Amino acid sequence: AECMREVFAELDMTSNVLEILMSPDAPFFRLSTVGNAGNTHFEIPSDSEMMETFDCQQTQTNRFKITLLKPSLKALTLATRVSVRLDTRGFLSMQYMIRNDDGSICFVEYLCAPDEEFDEENDVEE
User: Fold this and answer.
1) Which of 45, 103, 104, 107 has its CA 20 to 30 A from that of 58?
2) Nearest-CA neighbor of 110 among 96, 89, 90?
3) What whole-number distance in Å separates Cα of residue 116 and Cα of residue 39?
4) Which residue(s) pair with 61 in the sheet?
């Protein structure tokens, strides 16, 4: 979870969209934004220590409105583990494991539909 906090801290949250690329081939998992600070790409290899498990059968790229994802970052600040999943329709599921003060564990799951209305001028460039 600490690694994901660092990733989101590096991304440009002035961007309109967060692009997530998942692929069975390199770069495997990439988060990208385009904002006031320019293009930001953060790639995580499948064999990285940040990844406990990586399973991807086909390449897919999806974009999500940053304004819809920002509320989920509150749970990220408390999480001890994070699971990121994309289904075949591009729906994003981020599940956060949080240890409470009494030692019990709870989960917060955040679901987000992909942004189907992005225009080419706001496209995240490689």
Assistant:
1) 107
2) 96
3) 21
4) 21
**Both tokens assigned to 53:** 């498990």
CB 53 within 8 A of CB 97: no
Q: Do the bridges between strand 38-44 and strand 60-65 make them parallel or antiparallel, or are there none, so unpaired? A: unpaired
In this structure, is the dihedral angle defined by the CA atoms of residues 25, 31, 36 and 37, taken in order, positive or negative? Answer: negative
The structure tokens 């539909």 sit at 113
Provide the whole-model pTM.
0.85
- C-beta separation of 93 from 85 below 8 A: yes
AA letter at 18 = L
Q: Give 20-65 pLDDT, tens digit per residue.
A: 999 999 999 999 999 888 899 999 999 998 888 999 999 999 999 9
Structure tokens at 33: 């934004």
